[in-house]
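Students often ask why we bother predicting the structure of a whole assembly rather than each chain alone. The short answer is interfaces. A chain on its own may look different once its partners are present, and contacts between molecules only exist in the joint model. In this exercise we take two input lines together and write out one structure for the complete complex. Read the inputs first and try to guess which parts will touch.
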Amino acid sequence: VGANSVGSSKEAPDARLEAELRRTIRDVPDFPKPGILFKDITPVLLDPALTARVVQAMAAPFAGAGITHVMAIESRGFIFGGPVALALGAGFVPVRKFGKLPHKRVSETYALEYGTDCLEVHADALNDASRVLVVDDVLATGGTAAATCRLGERLGARIEGVSVLLDLSFLSWKQTLGGRRAHSLVSF
Amino acid sequence: VGANSVGSSKEAPDARLEAELRRTIRDVPDFPKPGILFKDITPVLLDPALTARVVQAMAAPFAGAGITHVMAIESRGFIFGGPVALALGAGFVPVRKFGKLPHKRVSETYALEYGTDCLEVHADALNDASRVLVVDDVLATGGTAAATCRLGERLGARIEGVSVLLDLSFLSWKQTLGGRRAHSLVSF
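Now the answer. The structure tokens for the assembled complex follow.
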């Protein structure tokens, strides 16, 4: 399998990048709780040449989509969101946990395994002329990515897609994101 | 005044960039609590050309310092840390709040106005061959930046300096950082 893509267009898989990511991403058992095998991407970040390729590969499928803004999801999404926004010449819009953003904002509450969480974006960051790429490191349940898409849509923006480093294909993100276009460099 | 620099070398001030940042950074009164005037950098991030200049200006003073790693401080430091690391060809080392990093880590507790906080780094991210630039968005009390420097030093790394977008010159960061080199693009 190559790069994982859902939606209307096909991307050429970058099999070499995918193989290198599989070698580099580290399994951490029992984190954050017993029975969970955590995919630790920090070894990728230690390699600047690999990180540069990841950023290019996360941005490239959306280079022709007229992206005006990247919505990046706190906190690990910020790591890739900054460079992807610069690669696309797009503005960077931080999507943060409740209470962190200082100016007027809109909020979206979404379900977790137990309880709920809340994400926020500045109300004046996007409007109906905005074409948005959502960036995070990992797609798992898709709950935070879908909430981020809804935040953008509530401000009138058009969500062109979601771009991540890796996705957990056994989890429910495809259902949660519905028909939205999603792009991942490696699936586990 | 131009770019603010403390330490052994003088940087040429970029007065135009500084003026543009003063125009773009937004004051939010009474955030996060009454009486605090918050400097909101998110309008800078909405402008990709300005953000690209900020990243270059944050990296440039350290381009000849042989930086091997950028330690970026969660969460807003991640936004600039990613692009600055790529600009310097350096690895990216996330410094995170307690309990967020999955692998073996070292911790540093530091004082806040009320109580304490704790930052962590992966123990295998740095060693005595590492030359580190610490990146965050704002220098205020300097407490998180100093704790990050100590984390790096405990792993044997040499801290070459601290680079931020803005500093609050009326606060105590100069004392807190001691003789460490710090670079800021605009002071308030």
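Check your guess against this: Chain A touches chain B through 41 residues (CB under 8 Å).
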